[in-house]
Each structure stands twice: as C-alpha cells, then as structure tokens.
Amino acid sequence: MDASWLQLGMGAVLALVGGWLWVGRLSRLRHFQDTPTSRIRSAAQGHVELAGVLVERADATPLLAPLTARPCLWWRYRIEEYRRTNNRGSWRVLEHGVSTELLKLFDGTGDCLIDPRGADVLPSRRDVWTGDLRHPRGLPSTGLLAWLGGTRRYRYTEERLHAGEPLYAVGDFRSEGGGRAGLALEAARAEIVREWKGEYAGLLRRFDNNRDGKLDMAEWGRVRLAAELEAEQRHRAASEQPVRHLLARPPQGLPFVLSSHGEEVLVRRYRWKALGGALLCLLGALMVAAAWT
C-alpha cells in the first residue's frame, strides 16, 4: 500500500476518534457545570446531581473485596498476566469483575439508593501491586520484603468504595411510595385480573357461584369489581410506605457518574480529556492534509 494512502487512513481515524472524544467529553463537562446539585428530599424526578456520604444499608449482606478481603460497599478488580511475544512484553487481562450491590447515599435531608450498574465509577481507593500467584493473598508486605521472593508475573488492581466516604453522583433519580404516584384504576384492575387468571382454578373457587366450571357475565362482573377494590387497597398500602429514592443509569446516553472526588476534580478530569481529544483530532487533520499535498 502506498505510504500516502496509509497516512491518509491513519489520519482520518485519528481525526474521527479525537473528534468523538472531544465533543463527547466537552458535552459532559458542560452538563456537569450546568446541572445544580440537588437535595435528596426535594430533588426533581429525572436527571439530577447529588452529593453526600456513603452509608451502610441495614438490609445488606456485608461485602468483601475479592483481592484484599477488605470490607467495602463497592469493588472493581482486574488480574493481569505479563507475557512476552517476539521479544516484546505486555500485560494481558485474565480476570475482571465489578460488584452490583445497591449503594446508599445520605446528604442530611434524606437517603437515596444507587444502582451502580452501568455507572462510570471513579473511586479514591485504588490499590495496584504485583505477585507470582494468579490469585493474591491480600495486599503484599511493605518495604524490602515486598520485592523479595517473587517473579512478579501477575499484576492486580482493586478499587473500592467505603462507608463514610463522600460521593458525587449524577444519574436518573426516581421516587416511589409516599402517595407520589396516582392510581390508574383501569390499568391496575386489568393487571390484577391477569394475575388471577394465572391460577384459574382459584378464580373459579372464588367467583363460580353456580359451580358450572365457567364464569358467566355476571360472575365476570364480580371479578372486575373485586379486582377494582383490590387495586385501591394495594394503592393505599403503597401510599403508606415511606418514600424510596433510587438513582440509576439514565436513558438516552446521559452521563451516569459516581465519584469519590468533588465536582471540581471531575470537571478538571473531563476538561483534560476534551483537550486530549481536540489535540488528537488536530493531529489527524494535519496528517490528512499532509497526505494530500
């Protein structure tokens, strides 16, 4: 292949990738700067920004990080192996994983559960070390002992979120209970009827008054009336429950970020990423221009 065509292709790829990074990171940067921090008790439904402290959930099973066995609220890990090919060495990922347990954020006005699945999580606790076992036995010894007795074939990375740490969160905020949702009576009644039809024998025992093995029009009328009363009762019970707030992944590609750092650190990080994307786009454009001359 002619060198100019190769340069042209590489330049076009760099320009496209750089432009995508530039526009995407700049869009998120502006979103963070333009979105005010809400309080949990008064937050509007939809995409919001929250700031508070992580607390333990009373109903949660204690969580241990997989590599260090340290108690935490969230973890992410990666195990890599160092391999040499054609006199060149590189790290190859062998295992990786992330926890999916719900987090709980408290900001002084209330608490909010967070579903971390799909979030861009930026924790402050990050440990990286090496060893000669595929699965480490916790963090290594410190000092001189850390460099003795091993080939350092494997590299381990573990990130964690702990109770008591600050958390900055951006995502889709929804509230349930406390009488917030109105009752769509017809839809609720239809759902209950479908639920009862799933056990048709039980439906006949309750409403087949003439015991002919089927429900006539009058008996179906009583089914619908009973389902309507059941829907109203369920709605009243749900309204008496305390309000439950949940932050989760938003639709339509909006940012979903959980960070142990404040908004200022996050804005600075995305500003540098946007700048890097712009420089990459410029480099690609210069390569394309040089290839055409």
Automatic annotation (TrEMBL):
Its EC number is 2.3.2.27. The keyword Zinc applies. GO terms for molecular function: ubiquitin protein ligase activity; zinc ion binding. Keywords: Membrane, Metal-binding, Transferase, Transmembrane, Transmembrane helix, Ubl conjugation pathway, Zinc, Zinc-finger. It is a multi-pass membrane protein. It catalyses: S-ubiquitinyl-[E2 ubiquitin-conjugating enzyme]-L-cysteine + [acceptor protein]-L-lysine = [E2 ubiquitin-conjugating enzyme]-L-cysteine + N(6)-ubiquitinyl-[acceptor protein]-L-lysine. InterPro entries: EF_Hand_1_Ca_BS, MUL1-like. Its main location: membrane. Residues 80-179 form the E3 Ubiquitin ligase MUL1-like domain. It is an enzyme of class 2 (transferase). GO terms for biological process: protein ubiquitination. It is found in: Membrane. Pfam families: GIDE. GO terms for cellular component: membrane. It comes from the Bacteria. The chain crosses the membrane at residues 6-23, 274-292. This is RING-type E3 ubiquitin transferase. It comes from Stutzerimonas marianensis.
